[in-house]
Amino acid sequence: MAVTFIGVRHHSPACARLVRRTIETLRPAYVLVEGPADVNDRLDELLLGHQLPIAIFSHYRDDERAHLSWAPFCAYSPEWVALTVGRAHGAKLRFIDLPAWHPALAGRRNRYADAEQRYADAADRLCRAFAVDNVDALWDRLVEVEPDDGLEERLATYFDLVRGETETGEDDTAREAYMAAWVRAAAADAGDRPVVVVTGGFHRPALRRLVAEPGSVVPEITNVRAVPVEVTSGLHRPAPRTGTEEPAGPLEVTDRSQAPGASPVADAGDGPVEVGGGLHPGGDGPEAARADVGADPAGAAARLPRSAASPLVAASSGWPEIPRPAAGAVGGSYLVPYSFRRLDAFSGYQSGMPSPEYYQRLWEQGADAAADGLVEAVATRLRGRGVAVSTADLIAARTLSAGLARLRGHPHPARTDILDGLVSALVSDDLDQPLPWTRRGALEPGAHPVVAEMVAALSGDRTGRLHPDTPAPPLVHDVDAELARLGLDRTGTVELDLSDAGDLVRARALHRLRVLRVPGYRRVSGPVSGADPVLDERWELTDDEERTAALIEAGAYGGTLRDAATAVLAEGVAAAGTKPDGLAAVLFDAALCGVTDLSEQITELIAANIAGARELGPLGDALATVLALWRHDRVLGTAGSPMYAAVIDGAVTRVLWLAEGVHGGPAPADPARLRAVTATRDALLHAHEVLSTGREAALDVMARIGADREAPPDLRGAAFGFGWSLGASADPVRALRGAAGADTLGDWLAGLFALARDEVLADGGSAGGGVLAVLDDLVTTMPDFLAGLPALRQAFAYFPPRERELIARRLLERRRLTGSARALLRTTADPLLIAEARALEERTSRLLAGEGLLP
Amino acid sequence: MTTEETFQRPPAEIRYADELARLGEDDRGGRPPGWALSLETARAFIVGDERRGIRRKFVGDPSLIDRALVSLATSRGLLLVGEPGTAKSLLSELIAAAVSGTSTLTIQGGAATTEDQIKYSWNYALLVSEGPSPRSLVPAPLLKGMAEGKIVRFEEITRCPLEVQDSLLSPLSERVLAIPELNGTDGMVFARQGFNVIATANTRDRGVNDMSAALKRRFNFETVFPIADFATELDLVEAEARALLEASGVTVPPRRDVLEVLVATFRELRAGTNADGGPADRLSTVMSTAETVSVAHAVGLRGWFLRGEPGTAADIVACLAGTAAKDNADDLARLRRYLEQQVPRRRGDQWRALHDARHLLPG
User: Fold this and answer.
1) How far does the CA of residue B311 sit from the closest CA of chain A (Å)?
2) Is residue A661 less than 8 Å (CB to CB) from chain B?
3) How many A×B Cβ pairs under 8 Å?
């Protein structure tokens, strides 16, 4: 009996090769792989012969939380190779990690993310010592481009260093305890035959300790010689390539991690220390495992849910029990097709190895061919985009890559060597953002086109496809059941009344299918915005042969219609970026789908997107839409929703920010930005409890705009009206006199009337020189009345006819005239003539626009 | 030779003479022809090597140094681009010192730079008495660098008129400089191994867009970015500000929590992101680390000489108006909005003090 632990980095071709070699050499009885143990009874499904990449998708929902996660596999994943090669050599396969729904994995969207992201200090030290930018470059340097001999030792050293002395989080401790229980059970069951364990390298040191000394307290192992497992790693640093650039730091770091007794590997000899069976007689299993759980730091055990906190090992078989979710929770795991683009899109704590297309080539063809392929792919893409890539450039890129590889001590050009060489040779501009491969981050909008194409070429666009015999994901069944329950499993026209509870549920189901882009569900009519008073919807249902395929693909987003729609809407939020109109559309879709509790993460993203909006007009419209949904919409159930509240808060802050930045002297009034100021005022009036920018700050901003000579007159008028309508003390007459002037008065008034119509009318009623009286004087004495007339007309259009009549009556009173106020409002021209004039104007505009003379 | 102490700012090869000497002795790597150090050693000189006691002199991505050095070893020149105050000139000085052992073959670009200052001019007394001869020739940095096989630094290349910039074309591509006034072999100076050009350009002035495509092709572009890591920048600012304050006779060190607020403010206004990483407005003024240091210095001076204490968040606001806003009204408005709307979202006493001091902004 011997257990071989292979610590891998997920999605590393070099590790995959090591796994293949080891399994082929050892022919183990068991191959144990880090993966969700609750899928063990369905491993056959995983090995049906899919086209990679695919992923095990898991979803979970209980009263407290909802969680979606993926365990992606591609051809060069060590875990995938372990499964396929293990199966080919007759080994029994087991996933040994906790299920994806388990609290220890809460917050993990990518099961195969890099663990060192969570413990960044040691990785940072290593990077500095090797003078590389980040972990990816370090990994390529130590592992991917190096020859395979000695790989195991290098990996062990690397992960021991990364693990170092850092305190492991309780989540990782719980997972490691569980995995160790599986290893012990498999070792006991295998008897004399070897067992191969493939896990993330970060877990390897702990697993070995746990398996070796099941009864001891985890971190305190002092008797190094007693490690009863096969130890194949010594501490060897990778051989330096040249004498002079021998990197310094790691040795020191190594020394630190080898404080006496701290590491069980320190003196563990060179060869395998094979210890005969007997240490793990089958009967020991349960006790050992129980002892192990007992010895666990209390936190780890405490985090196990009640169902899982029972003894981890089933007494009868010796195999660990697979935790089951508590009653009432919904969850499941199933296979979904995946894509390189999604694999590359994980970021932050979820990220793993980048650039799947490059590593796919590395796995298939080797480092040199991968490098050539990469250069070719980038050149082809750039030429396709019309960017000139000359032969001289490619020669320069090749020379630089080779030079960089030599300087960095790589036997073959590594990923970063190629990228650095290409970027040096092809980019003849200054860049706006750091190169994405130096920062380990995603590309931001506005990246240099050459860099963007390079990143896209490395990411690749392969997509996976499931074998036809794969059971359909639960979404397909869920949708069928849901539609049958709602009586929508038919074709033809469906009329729905949204004020009816049953029909509302039906409408939501149909809208969810619509946002999932499942063909066959088309809405013919219905409300188109939050303020739309339409309460009827009309749908056209057809039988589409693509329907099932689309549902299977959509299955990657969630197990139920609601979950999947939520995930798609969340993606829509991300895609809308800083465009408020796009965002408002997604939020309205969310309201239609009845999904108003998008996760906190998404709410933050929305807030961030809003904070990046550049245009006042669209932002104001979005604010008005969302404010209406938040205040009134009891039909769609969005009234008072915290998600919409966050949008309102962010939009108000941003409108104030943007409004103060608008400059440029006299300009025609812009109704869109006036609407934005109005919406902001409404938010302050009706939603002040959700705003973080208070009334005072808003009034300060508006007071400054009102006094700013550089700001356009309509905005200044609106700013004044903003304060007036909120009851801030102000002298309207003085402000009005300040805005007098044929070129500004009308626009200023447009702003004022848009915001403070009521106040103007009320003020005009008071005795003496109210606003209307002053205005009357100003207009009467205006020297250039005709020039100012169009703007004045536009301004007074903010008053509805009845209020205009009121104004007219006051003017008559002021002049002590009698007569019909209404008659004053009537035009004396022939209506037909006006209609003709309007038609002529419209035709002219169309003509001018057609010739490109008007925007 | 004058000792180091009497220079206001000795060049890198004098400041780090002992490190260069030590590295040179131990250097076993292959050196590109004409180089004083191997690539690996030159890199260690710049990014530092704790084990050999070599200080880290440039805070930035190591891969940038890799690319820069490899570019210089090929037939293309190196053009460092970036915002002002990102240590481009320091980097070019360090590289020149490491590669050639001298960083003083420097052309300072400007509107008045002429070809004479780049290539060569004449000693007119000798020229009149003897006619053109190698004796009457006064070599400028480019000619010297070509003849001796050294790195020539060209600072702020985009500040020069385009025609003057283009005088680099044939030295960079043909690696030869013709002196038509001289006859025979003296009339052609062929570049020796080791010659290359490091130019710097900042993105604020005229930028690199005006450069001729022909010249662009002869350079590899490297963009130098502001320091990415908050802690690194804070440490750097603290160290530099402390040194400046000591030199100004201030005996109390700057307060770290005040510096934290200062550095965070500068970073957010520079990058145009708020505390949550969301986008916000960025200032059009230069908000480099160098400017941060000078504000930290000013804050310390105000605190000490006005009140006898280390300087507070209110001093930051007072100093920001002069540095960040300069004479730009838009920037002043952005700064005010930042103090009003973004700062209150942060937690901490100093942030609150910063918010409370917002009225100190002029206007």
Assistant:
1) 27
2) yes
3) 142
B105 and B164 co-located in one domain: yes
Sign of the CA dihedral running A133, A139, A144, A148: positive
In a domain, B125, yes or no: no
ipTM of the complex: 0.83
Alpha-carbon A216 to chain mean position: 42
What Rg do the C-alpha atoms of chain A give, in angstroms?
Answer: 34
Write down the residue that tokens 């919406």 correspond to: A679
Q: How far apart are CA A343 and CA A338, in angstroms?
A: 8
- List the 769-788 stretch of A: residues with Cβ below 8 A of B: none
Residue B335 lies in a domain: yes
Are residues B302 and B203 part of one domain?
Answer: no
Q: Which residues of B touch A407 (CB under 8 A)?
A: 39-40, 43, 66, 69-70
Name the residue among B29, B51, B70 with its Cβ closest to that of A404: B70
Shared domain check, B165 and B237: no
Residue type, A698: A
Say whether both B216 and B269 belong to one domain.
Answer: no
- H or E stretch at A843: helix A831-850
How big is the CA angle at A36 (ends A32 and A37), to the nearest 5 degrees? 65
**A249/B63 Cβ within 8 A:** no
Tell me if chain B has a CB within 8 Å of the CB of A407: yes
CA A71 to CA B349: how far, in whole Å?
44
Kindly report the CATH number assigned to the domain that includes residue B214: 3.40.50.300
Number of neighbouring beta carbons within 10 Å of residue A564: 27
Handedness of CA A643, A645, A646, A648 (dihedral sign): positive
- What angle (nearest 5°) sits at the alpha carbon of residue A258, between those of residues A257 and A264? 110
pLDDT averaged per 10 residues in sequence order, chain A, 855 residues: 83 89 89 88 85 84 76 90 90 88 80 71 80 84 83 84 74 86 86 88 84 53 34 38 39 35 37 35 37 38 39 55 80 81 70 84 86 87 86 88 88 88 86 79 74 85 81 82 85 85 87 87 79 78 77 77 84 76 81 75 72 81 83 73 81 84 76 88 84 81 84 87 82 79 82 86 63 83 82 87 86 82 80 92 90 78
As a whole number of angstroms, the longest Cα–Cα distance in chain A is: 117
Q: How close B106 comes to chain A (CA, Å)?
A: 22
How many domains in chain B? 2
| Residues B206, B337 within the same domain | no
Residue B244 lies in a domain: yes
Beta strands in A562-622 (DSSP E): none
pLDDT value for A842:
92
Among B224, B245, B260, the domain boundary falls at B224
Rounded Cα–Cα distance for residues B19 and B21 (Å): 5
Can you spell out the DSSP letters for A322-352? PP-PPTT-EEEEEEEE-BHHHHTT--GGG--
DSSP state for residue B49 in the 8-state scheme:
B
Q: Which of B341, B345, B346, B347 to mutate to test the interface with A (most CBs of A within 10 A)?
A: B341
pLDDT, tens digit (0-9, with 9 covering 90-100), for A534-586 = 778 888 888 776 777 778 777 777 778 888 888 888 878 777 777 777 787 88
pLDDT in tens, A132-158: 888 888 888 888 888 888 888 888 888
Same domain for B75 and B164?
A: yes
Range of the domain at B314: 230-360
